[in-house]
Amino acid sequence: MTSNLMIIKDKISTAAQKSNRSEKDITLVAVSKIHVEETILPVLKEGHRIFGENRVQEAVQKWPPLKEKYPDVKLHLIGPLQTNKVRQVVGLFDTIETVDRPKLARTIARILEEEGKFCEIYVQVNTGLESQKAGIAPSEADDFIRLCRDELKLDVVGVMCIPPVGENPVPHFTMSRDIGERNKLSNISMGMSGDFELAIENGATHVRVGTAIFGKRPGY
Ligand SMILES: *Cc1c(COP(=O)(O)O)cnc(C)c1O
Predict the structure, then answer these.
(1) Which of 53, 89, 164, 185 has fewest C-beta within 10 Å?
(2) CATH number of the domain at 2-214, please?
(3) Pocket lining: 211 vs ligand 1, CB cutoff 6 Å
(4) What are the structural domain ranges in the chain?
């Protein structure tokens, strides 16, 4: 039987080839937020290991038992992060994709140092300048990346964006890629179930796909 995961991987491969890239250059982050263990387990059994969660409270309950069975799982935090949750996050997540303000960056740097831990960091950019959305303003992104990388010595690997709902995402993808390129960051996290192929054609290295793998989230 062809699984959703296989279908998505196939589409990633096709989109990569279309822009003369290799499927190996694209990492699939399977967004398992809201979904329960029984829904996630089949995807783990198929061999997938990189997952995205957006709520700290949910992830710290759900993932420790799963990580006991699958110790090589890598977790990406893709939702907003409050400074008082940073210690929990660095104990569970390998990557924080949503670093978007100096206070948060400073707290992460301090706690990583205190705990002797290591996390990859993405700077989230609010490409649509939406007031309700997290992310640093595009005009402040270069300075913020410099602060995180040069002053705080964080391991900044990339840029992440969530384009405004209902808008053509391409200008947002392009802006994110430009910010990444001019700051010499290798990873660009963008593209969800509805637009991951377009994101890949516009330079995504990491796509965050939930619904197309796990189905509709319960209660949504
Ligand atoms: C939920 C979520 C996704 C996945 O969305 P789907 O449309 O289900 O693929 C991707 N990125 C972020 C930041 C999310 O919160």
Answers:
(1) 164
(2) 3.20.20.10
(3) yes
(4) 2-214
